Amino acid sequence: MEIAHSGLAGVSGLLLAGCAGAQSALEIRGPAAERIAGIWWAMLAIGAMIYLVVVVLVLYLLLRRQTSDAHAQRVTGEDKGASRWN
Q1: Contacts of 34 by beta carbon, 8 Å cutoff, 6+ apart
Q2: Dist. CA 72–CA 77, nearest whole Å
Q3: pLDDT confidence of 54, banded at 50, 70, 90?
Q4: Segment 15-23 mean pLDDT
Q5: Does the pLDDT at position 12 exceed 80?
Q6: Is residue 28 within 8 Å of 34, Cβ to Cβ?
Q7: pLDDT for 22-44, tens place per residue?
Q8: Which of 62-74 are b and which e, b meaning 16 or more Cβ less than 10 Å from the residue's Cβ?
Q9: CB atoms within 10 A of CB 24
Q10: Could you give the CA distance from residue 77 to residue 66 in angstroms, rounded to a whole number?
Q11: What is the rounded end-to-end Cα distance, in angstroms, of the chain?
Q12: CB contact at 8 A, 80 and 69
């Protein structure tokens, strides 16, 4: 068991030796990295906008459905939500 632990420690030491220096994904070095970073930030911004639009639409539809069901129940006196599942 001792040999396995020392072997694992040795392999881990060799693997971690390559992690010296700055390892930040946001640190840009070189012209190719600048282009890639620009594309990444643009994709992040577009994805965030699409996400926000979808969340707003879902919330709008959920709130609109609840208010229309409540209005229909007040007008007709019946529960439309219960009949949906029958």
Answers
A1: 28
A2: 8
A3: very high
A4: 64
A5: no
A6: yes
A7: 666 667 778 888 898 899 999 99
A8: eeeeeeeeeeeee
A9: 8
A10: 15
A11: 64
A12: yes
**Two tokens, residue 83:** 């009949």
Here the tokens at position 51 are 């996400």
DSSP 19: G
Mean pLDDT of 76-80: 61
Q: What span, in angstroms and rounded, lies between the C-alpha atoms of 79 and 76?
A: 8
List the structure tokens of 62: 């959920």
Residue 60 has which token pair?
A: 């709008």
pTM above 0.85, yes or no: no
Instruction: Find where tokens 């219960």 sit.
Output: 82
Contact 73, 79 (CB under 8 A): yes
What pLDDT does 71 receive?
65
On whether the CB atoms of residues 28 and 37 are closer than 8 A, the answer is yes
Residue 49, CB-side half-sphere exposure with 13 Å CA sphere? 6
